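Summary of Year 1 activities. Much of the first year was spent building the evaluation harness for sequence design. The harness presents a backbone, in tokenized form, and records the residue chosen at every position. We chose the following record to illustrate the format because it has been used consistently in internal testing since the harness was completed.
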């Protein structure tokens, strides 16, 4: 029992300390959409402005109005009661109790702390018929509501406990009614936070699902394309194994049996590949066209230029001799990178660089140690000053597909904004050496 009491005291201490000193509110969300009930303001122009900007301007304007109203109220009441209060004092009181309205969107906890101190320390007993300045009560309720929306449950609990305690200590005669209003602000604010949190978590879950689905779809597409490449090689093995005995007059029987076994194994493997292809092909139409390679790079660049991009290419190395799988992957990465430039930076200047080292040559009759194919697509900002390029990381699924393709070959791909306002995609694709034949 003593341990439970100690734990309860520790929890209360933590929540009260977080509310009064150490707690921090969630940052104001960027690009907040306008509430549904206020979207009609688009027709009068106001709704076309950022909602956060309008909220802060409205809070500032409301604060100025309440300051003027509070000064007028204090002047009228003190004059009627024959109490002399300097104009500076009245202005100070008005600003102190209403300033939280101007601060509550950017600094919810700071606004509540200022409101609590002002309401606790400023005594208008004998000046007004109520124990609190009316405008200060409104500001305090709005600050409490904002805290409940933008702060964690523990901080909100601490704010509620401190507010209730201050309310009943300073003005117990108005405690019941004021407590109902305070509880209403806390409850509504916390309900709004729960709803926003649930929607945000649902959106994040949907985003993860879409990313996972995009990865799976891209892997299926890669598998279909690589099937065509592998099937071609398996067919060549079977044909060469069948034709080899006829190229030499005297072939030992053991060699003939080995070649026949190689041919049979290749045909079995080809059958299994076709079975896998039957699973991967979409029911609404299989992709039966020959798979592209860097031999079609000029066509790809020509299409990009036709779409308005100013493309410059730099090619080096034996690109024609690349293995089909590497050539296909390189082509698809370049295709997606140029498509991104068309969508996000229309009319921009794009530099395309493709190179491979000496070992990357796929010449069937040469042996090598392997090499690497380097790809680079760098675009500038959109032409005509149409805004900066949206960052791709965490965005569309094209980047996911490019990374999957590079990873399938054991390579790497990076994508990042450039200091000039453009975007750069770079990739390295290893090329395994072939055995000499």
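For this record, the design step produced the sequence shown next.
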């Amino acid at each position: 029992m003593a341990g439970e009491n100690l734990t309860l005291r520790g929890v209360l201490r933590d929540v009260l300390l977080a509310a009064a000193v150490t707690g921090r509110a969630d940052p104001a969300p960027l690009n907040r959409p306008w509430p549904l009930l206020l979207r009609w303001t688009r027709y009068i122009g106001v709704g076309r402005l950022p909602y956060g900007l309008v909220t802060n301007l409205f809070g500032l304007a409301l604060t100025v109005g309440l300051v003027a109203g509070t000064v007028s109220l204090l002047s009228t009441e003190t004059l009627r009661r024959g109490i002399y209060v300097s104009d500076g004092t009245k202005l100070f009181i008005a600003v102190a109790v209403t300033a939280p309205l101007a601060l509550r969107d950017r600094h919810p906890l700071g606004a509540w702390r200022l409101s609590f101190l002002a309401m606790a320390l400023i005594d208008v007993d004998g000046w007004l018929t109520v124990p609190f300045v009316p405008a200060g009560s409104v500001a305090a309720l709005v600050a409490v509501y904002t805290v409940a929306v933008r702060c964690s449950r523990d901080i909100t609990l601490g704010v509620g406990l401190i507010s209730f305690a201050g309310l009943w200590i300073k003005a117990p005669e108005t405690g019941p009614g004021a407590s109902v209003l305070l509880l209403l602000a806390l409850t509504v604010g916390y309900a709004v936070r729960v709803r926003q949190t649930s929607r945000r978590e649902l959106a994040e879950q949907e985003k993860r699902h879409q990313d996972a689905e995009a990865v799976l779809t891209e892997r299926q597409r890669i598998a279909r394309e690589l099937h065509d490449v592998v099937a071609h090689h398996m067919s060549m093995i079977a044909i060469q194994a069948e034709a080899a005995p006829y190229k030499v007059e005297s072939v030992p029987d053991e060699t003939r049996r080995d070649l026949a076994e190689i041919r049979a194994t290749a045909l079995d493997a080809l059958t299994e590949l076709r079975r896998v292809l039957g699973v991967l092909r979409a029911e609404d139409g299989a992709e039966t066209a020959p798979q592209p390679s860097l031999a079609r790079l000029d066509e790809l660049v020509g299409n990009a230029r036709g779409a308005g991009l100013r493309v410059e290419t730099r090619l080096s190395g034996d690109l024609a001799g690349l293995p089909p799988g590497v050539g296909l992957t390189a082509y698809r990465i370049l295709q997606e990178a140029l498509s991104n430039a068309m969508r996000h930076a229309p009319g921009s200047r794009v530099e395309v660089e493709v190179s491979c080292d000496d070992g990357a040559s796929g010449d069937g009759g040469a042996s090598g140690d392997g090499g690497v194919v380097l790809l680079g697509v760098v675009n500038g900002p959109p032409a005509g000053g149409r805004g900066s390029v949206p960052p791709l990381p965490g965005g569309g699924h094209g980047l996911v597909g490019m990374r999957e393709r590079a990873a399938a070959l054991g390579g790497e791909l990076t994508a990042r904004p450039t200091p000039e306002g453009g975007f750069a995609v770079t990739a390295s694709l290893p090329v395994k050496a072939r055995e000499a034949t």
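The mean pLDDT is 81. Quantitative recovery figures across the full test set are reported in Table 2.
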